[in-house]
Amino acid sequence: MNEFYSNTDRSGTAAESWVAYAMGINDFDVGQMIGKKAQSTDLLVSKDRKLWRIEVKSSSQGRSQAKYFIQNPIDDDSNLIYAFVFFDIKKKKQKLDPAPQLFFVKSTDLKKLKYEISRKENENKDIWIVSHKDNFWIKGVGSDTIHRNNWDVFNGQGVKERKKPYFSPDTDKEKIIRSYHRLFLNGMMNKEIRERKDYDLTILKIKEKLNEGKSISSIIREFKLSRGEVNKIKERCKIE
After folding, report:
1. Do 133 and 52 fall into the same domain?
2. Could you tell me if 117 and 225 lie in one domain?
C-alpha cells in the first residue's frame, strides 16, 4: 500500500499512525484519522467523555538538524495537543528499531518552545520552525526534555485515573496495531516487522486476559513465556 504514498506523505502518515497506536495502548479511544486536509487536526481522541484534537508533526533528520514545521500555529486552544514524532534516523522510519520518539506539547504551551517564524510565499501564512534540539533534546546533556511521553498534558482536563484500561466497545485494538505496522512496509512484509506485529498482538491478548482475572500461571502455560516476561508486560500495561 505504501507505493501510493510520496515520501513526505508516507512519513507524515506513519507518524500519525504511530500516535494513534500510542494513544490506543494508553487507553484512549481514537475516533478518527483526519489527515492533512484538516488544519490543526490530524486525530480526534477521547477518554472519559473528554475530547482532544491532536496535530501531528514529524521529523527524521539527525537530532541536531531536525526541525518541525507548523503552519498557522494555534496557541490558545486548551483542547488542542501538538504531538511531535521523531524518527531517530531518516531511513529507520521504515523500520521499528528503534521505535519513534513521541513528545506532547499543549497548544497553550506552544509559545514556550524555541522557534523561528517564516512566511509561506504568496499565501500570507505564518510558519513556525521548531527545532528538535533544545526543545526536545539537549546537546551535550544527551537527554530528552520534559515533553517526551508527557501524558500529563491530558490530566486536569476531565481525565480520571482508572485502575482498569478504558476502551470503547467499538474500538478495534488489533486493527490499530496492524494498521500501524502496515505503514512501514516497503513491498512485502519483512521478518522484523512481522515479528514486532506478532509481539504487539501477543501483548494485547495477554493484557486482555490479565484484565479478565486470568492467573499468571495460566498465561505462562498458554503463551510459553517466563514469569519475568509476563510480569514485565503486566507492569507495562499498568495492571494491578
Report:
1. yes
2. no
